[in-house]
Amino acid sequence: MEAQRPRPYFSKLILKILRWLPVRLSLAALLSLVAVHALPAQTVTSAPAPPPGTNADSVPADNGDWVHQSLGQHAIQLGLLAGAGTGLGHSGGNQFGYAGGRGGIILSPEFLPGFLRGNFEWAADVLPMYVVFPPSGAVWGGSIRPVIWQWNFTSAKKFAPYVAAVGGIVFTTSNVPPGDTSQVNFTPGIAFGSNVFVKPHRAVFFESSIAHLSNASLGNRNPGYNVNFLFTVGYSWFKGGH
Predict the structure, then answer these.
(1) Domains in the chain, start-ordered, CATH in brackets?
(2) C-alpha torsion 9→15→17→20, nearest 10
(3) Chain segment 72-97, per-residue pLDDT in tens
């Protein structure tokens, strides 16, 4: 029997990050929400009245700061997305494609200083099309990502980078990876992206992520796809918030 090759150090490091990052970000999210309730209420400054004889409706409301007009606390995000990816290392030779929608709500006001300033958003993806391309041929399915714990960086005016811990489930019409595995797999990961606003409350977003896919021993075998790189493009509408 051929000896199993040792797993590269890079793959071990990625798996450790994927295992611990969601726990740490969830603690950070809870601490942020506690901090939100501990913050004193901010004084609301009313906008200056328009000059006498000027119709208030004719005064432009757009001050050019599209990030803060769109990403206020309690703002709702709705978007469409599509993406693709490939396996890395021992998972090389496998590709992925997916499409669907994203929804989210911003739960906190902005806090933290400088370039770290931002707010916390809980989002979720529904992907009715999720295709895995192992060497043996395409396997069709769907996916949900109910946990996208996202920190939006809001110090800029026209774009808002973000980092997120992601947890999802993939359902396929046959076993993935092929063999005595499972039709249900879990996909924890970490994502980095940015909302690029084209106007207030409208943004194109670009996102790259490192993800793991395995069945958590639901099948008799669990080889999984240890490290995968995914790239996503989408368009979002933001509504409400303050």
Answers:
(1) 75-239 (2.40.160.20)
(2) -140
(3) 999 999 999 999 999 998 888 899 99
